[in-house]
Design brief:
The chain has about 270 residues and is of the alpha/beta class. The protein contains 8 helices and 12 strands. The radius of gyration is 18 Å and the shape is globular.
């Protein structure tokens, strides 16, 4: 396998009702008919994957003006990120020892507002931006009509970008790195399998799995964040198979405890 290094870039924390992240996270009972909801922290991170064929930025995080005018109030009320201004993409890369000029490729797992907010930094450049065909179509449909799904902001991704559209469900553009479609959360979520040169395999699930509970308890995402429940379960089983066959480490989309434990990345 090629010599691949992966840096984890801290992009801040947003909060939400746990019921968005885990279906039935708070449930009423006869004795407790009005239980307190859990308002939980959710980690936001990007990756810089240093590969012999180029440096890949994995996702672009939340827009730095999310707490200002970039996000509508209803969205910020549901998923507040009060420190967004402290997490500009260029500043967070710089803090980790990288710059925008170091980035040869951008890989977007999907185009929700907590993943695509930094794409404006690549407006008008020739930096290739990988995205799945189904995600690109669904994002524009959702952001420009009254149909589709929530969580898409046109101003996050409607830029002059060098889109490289992925059409297949599993593809390897870089030796040792596979992009895999994990439809469920959205139609076109792409996860990433990285085979490191020490025979370790790391699978980044993106938002197919938000938190450890989703995977270990087979608890799907809340209905507001689930495009297709059956597809979600199908791809959960695919992740279980990948973990078993490769003895892989699975890294979830927003689990704060896991991101803290990972630290700076691999190796």
């Amino acid at each position: 396998m090629p010599d691949i290094e992966i840096d984890v870039i801290d992009r801040g924390t947003f909060q939400s009702d746990l019921n968005y992240m885990v279906e039935g996270g708070t449930m009423a009972t006869l004795d407790e008919q009005n239980p307190d909801v859990q308002f939980v922290d959710n980690a936001v991170y990007n990756l810089v994957i240093d590969h012999p064929d180029g440096t890949i930025l994995w996702d672009t995080g939340i827009h730095h003006d999310a707490a200002g005018e970039h996000w509508p109030d209803w969205l910020f009320q549901a998923f507040p990120m009060e420190d967004a201004a402290d997490h500009r993409l260029d500043d967070d890369l710089d803090a980790a020892g990288w710059s925008l000029d170091d980035i040869d490729y951008v890989f977007q797992t999907h185009l929700h507002c907590d993943h695509a907010g930094g794409l404006e930094f690549f407006d008008g450049t020739d930096t290739p931006v990988f995205i799945h065909e189904e995600e690109l179509k669904w994002a524009y449909y959702s952001a420009t009509t009254d149909e589709g799904g929530a969580g898409y902001l046109l101003d996050d991704f409607h830029w002059d970008l060098d889109w490289r559209v992925v059409h297949r469900d599993r593809v390897e553009f870089f030796d040792g790195i596979e992009f895999v479609r994990f439809a469920g959360h959205t139609p076109g979520v792409l996860g990433t399998i990285v085979h490191l040169d020490d025979d370790r395999t790391v699978v980044f699930t993106s938002d197919q799995v938000y938190r450890r509970e989703n995977f270990e308890e087979q608890a799907p995402l809340g209905a507001g964040l689930l495009w297709n429940k059956q597809r979600w379960f199908d791809n959960l089983h695919l992740l279980q198979d990948l973990e078993r066959r490769h003895d892989a480490e699975l890294v979830f989309g927003h689990d704060p405890g896991q991101v803290e434990a990972i630290g700076d990345g691999w190796p």
